[in-house]
Write a structure and sequence with these properties.
Layout (H helix, E strand, L loop, with lengths): L31 H21 L4 E3 L10 H4 L2 E14 L4 E14 L5 H9 L4 E7 L1 H5 L3 E2 L5 H21 L4 E5 L7 H15 L6 E5 L7 H7 L9 H10 L4 E5 L17 E7 L9 H11 L8 E5 L8 H22 L1
Length: 341
């Protein structure tokens, strides 16, 4: 693995023949066997394009999932998708229609075996797979059974652990849990959020990661970010706890964010996926801009601890813009290796 290996946070845009483009929750264009074939083809295309862009740790791009949380929940018994209610999520940042937990949770079957095995069979590069984190799942469903967020989070963590162990057996090298809720419920992160993650990674020997972020480049998130002032210091409260955790990597957005990059030093001892690609606008970074952010990170982290990535998922972006940005990521990391070797 080279210095400053590259990866993506998780999702990539879906081809227009698979789903409606430029949407966070895009309707599928197909159904039945044709849909499954299209998901397969989109996954293979995502892998090939990542490799062409010089991405070292590739992913399935979440091409088989409409949404990073609900793509997992669809395989869970105890959740009633016919009983959807509108709730405020991420501390009422925005409203969403969510399914209801109505009974004890259990997996119906494997969740992501098909796409994980497909990806493993078609790339020789390191393979990362993403799962929603327990706290974020709890924040994205309605509860009519457990009556306790912590109890429900631990139940979800057990299911995630079952799937994560199976993904490792499928040949996945990095399993990442996506926890955008971690910068909203800061006290709960220390009280039970990290414990839930520990439960989700129990018994894994592959690399584990957690992705925390200020969200996709959608209007609700952009409006919220505009209220946060000139410096976003929420991570100051949770980075020390993450540094003490058993999670191997932490994924953080840095490019064009207002997170003071000096806060990265609070993650001492961890590998850090440094977000060097902004997913909230369509301006494509230059290789020099990407290398500059990596260079800044070297002031606060050992070079060997830095992984160059995207700030967040790219699902709502234009396909051409997303892959131009990935090409910039690959070229920028290559330039940074020459500059900071």
């Amino acid at each position: 693995m080279p210095l400053f290996p590259t990866t993506i946070a998780g999702s990539l845009p879906k081809p227009a023949w698979l789903a409606e483009p430029n949407r966070l929750w895009p309707p599928w264009r197909l159904s039945g066997a044709a849909l499954e074939d299209a998901k397969r083809d989109a996954t293979l295309l995502a892998l090939k394009l990542q490799e062409d862009c010089g991405i070292d740790i590739v992913s399935d791009g979440e091409e088989s999932r409409q949404h990073f949380v609900h793509g997992f929940l669809e395989s869970v018994d105890g959740i009633d998708f016919a009983r959807k209610v509108e709730i405020g999520i991420r501390a009422d940042r925005y409203k969403a229609m969510v399914p209801t937990v109505t009974s004890a949770l259990r997996l119906k079957s494997r969740v992501h075996a098909r796409e994980a095995r497909l990806a493993r069979a078609h790339t020789r590069r390191k393979l990362k797979f993403t799962l929603p984190g327990p706290m974020t799942i709890v924040d994205t469903v309605a509860d009519a059974h457990y009556g306790d967020r912590v109890k429900m989070a631990m139940a979800f963590a057990d299911l995630l652990n079952t799937e994560a162990r199976a993904l490792e057996a499928d040949g996945v090298d990095v399993i990442q849990f996506d926890e955008p809720a971690f910068n909203v419920y800061l006290r709960e992160v220390e009280e039970w959020g990290i414990d839930a993650l520990h439960r989700a990674i129990e018994g894994l020997t592959c690399t584990t990661a957690v992705h925390i972020c200020y969200g996709y480049g959608i209007k609700a998130n952009l409006d919220w970010k505009a209220t946060l002032g000139s410096e976003w210091r929420q991570y100051e409260a949770i980075f020390p706890a993450l540094a003490r955790s058993r999670i191997g990597q932490v994924s953080v957005e840095c490019r064009n964010s207002r997170v003071p990059i000096a806060l990265l030093k609070l993650l001492h001892g961890k590998e850090v996926q440094v977000g060097v690609i902004d997913v909230a606008n369509e301006q494509v970074e230059t290789a020099d801009e990407v290398a500059a952010v990596i260079g800044e990170a070297t002031n606060y982290l050992p070079k060997e601890a830095i992984i160059a990535g995207t700030n967040c998922g790219m699902a709502p972006m234009r396909w051409d813009v997303a892959f131009a940005k990935l090409a910039a990521l690959g070229k920028g990391a290559e330039l940074a290796r020459k500059r900071f070797q």
